[in-house]
Specification:
The protein has 275 residues and is mainly beta. The protein has 2 domains: 148 residues, no CATH class; 100 residues, Tumour Suppressor Smad4 (Sandwich), CATH 2.60.200. Helix content is 8%, strand content 41%. Strands 1-11-10-9-6-7 form a 6-stranded antiparallel β-sheet, with no helix packed on it. Strands 3-2-4-5-8 form a 5-stranded mixed β-sheet, with no helix packed on it. A 4-stranded antiparallel β-sheet has the order 15-14-13-19, with no helix packed on it. Strand 9 and strand 10 form a beta hairpin. The longest helix has 17 residues. The protein is globular and about 65 Å long. It starts with a helix and ends in an 8-residue tail after the last strand.
Amino acid sequence: MAYDDDVRQWRQNVEAALRGEESWLSLAGLFWLKPGENSMGSGQHNGILLPEGAAPEVAGNIEFDGNRAVFHSAPGVEARSGEDLIGSILLQPDISDSPTRIRLGDVAFMAVVRAGRWGVRVWNRKHPARDTFPGRRWYPIQDRWLRTARYERYDPPRSIMTENILGDSESAPCPGYVEFDLDGASARLLVTDADADGLFLIFADPTNGNTTYPAGRFLATGPVDGERVLLDFNRAYSPPCAFTPFATCPLPPIENRLPIPIEAGEMDTAAGGHE
């Protein structure tokens, strides 16, 4: 039962993370920047609309020239980057090593870049979804969904075309693939990311749109041992776009569509994310 207890604890941890102060459930908006000045605040006239009652009516603006974004706080508005009060600051986007996160009371925001487009992602610590979300749903834990796989590295890494939930397409590196037995047949999944902690995969299967999220699911492994890695489908989980319309989740590569239902891991909760 030690394995079952470990999986249950992992599931409790991802549930707690989903309900965090700046989590997917607390996302309150995603706004694409236009060249020039982009006004911010809770007033309806603003281009970047912040949650009413949680942010000033006029919070400031973001100047955008197509390659860089600078936030200017409005007079009298307390804006912080970390512990520092700021008036104006260059926003490092989420694809940088040190992205800039600005806090305005219970609201926070960050610049994001998707397929060359710049936007602003907004969180609200008091978002009602943090309390009203009914909870993640899971298939029962079953040992049969533990599969030992062989990890084949590409040298050099390949590039593959990927698409996200918004319909953006771009080239992305693919470090290799895993190959494993799937009920008597050989199956293969391309790996999206790999580091010392393990592999990250995005897959689709016939449960999508029935018992699991329509767009597919994510799976992270533990460290690779030589060429061997354990795929634990009991830990397959829904992408962030299952819980919010403001996520920009990558979709499974077309090669990562498994032929049989993977009745393991997270089930769909119909929680108001992307359709």
